[in-house]
Design a protein that fits this description.
disordered N terminus; about 190 residues
């Protein structure tokens, strides 16, 4: 799997206070952490905005995105994971790292999304299993429930030749490709100067 240490069932935190720490990755269908190269680019983009940020890792899986955000100065990350085994591994990782800003929620992403408070998150990571078409459904749900704070960003990651089309209320702030992965940051158009 891309982004994993070969054969180890682990993914490495790239930067911040937990730099080089390894997170366990349970062997579950569809679970694949974002590749290192993608995370490095993403967190370089996010660097000016991470300090004190409130993050949502909606399809948490290994927790690589959410723990990377906490490692680099985010105040809090809510991890949502449907598989109870993966959620248990996230809880263990948060305990091992003494990640006081980590909140693990076990449940279906779209159902949990509907229960989250308005304007609660500065950065929302949307990185569902590549074989699903959940990225746009989750994006639409997050917009509909108004959980993105003013000035916040969405992170979208998909597999395929092109980044997904955005709803008309969003625009791409930055985007890139790494191998078969398309990824980028999107922002609401009404928040633009």
């Amino acid at each position: 799997m891309p982004g994993r240490d070969k054969g180890s069932g682990q993914v490495r935190i790239i930067g911040g206070v937990w730099r080089r720490r390894l997170l366990p990755v349970p062997a579950l269908p569809g679970l694949r952490p974002s590749p290192d190269r993608v995370r490095e680019t993403l967190f370089n983009w996010l660097a000016p905005r991470l300090s004190g940020a409130r993050c949502l890792d909606l399809f948490a899986g290994s927790g690589a995105l959410g723990f990377e955000a906490l490692s680099r100065g985010a105040a809090a990350t809510t991890f949502v994971e449907r598989d109870p085994r993966a959620a248990a591994v996230l809880t263990a990782s948060a305990r091992t790292l003494a990640a006081s800003g980590a909140d693990i929620v076990q449940g279906e992403a779209l159902e949990v999304l509907a229960t989250l408070p308005r304007a609660a998150f500065d950065i929302i990571f949307l990185d569902p299993p590549y074989a699903s078409d959940l990225v746009l459904e989750a994006l639409t749900g997050a917009l509909g429930h108004g959980i993105l704070a003013p000035g916040g960003w969405f992170y979208l990651e998909t597999q395929g030749p092109a980044r997904p089309d955005l709803p008309p209320t969003l625009r791409w702030h930055k985007s890139a490709r790494a191998g078969a992965v398309a990824f980028g940051l999107a922002e609401p158009i009404e928040d633009l100067p």
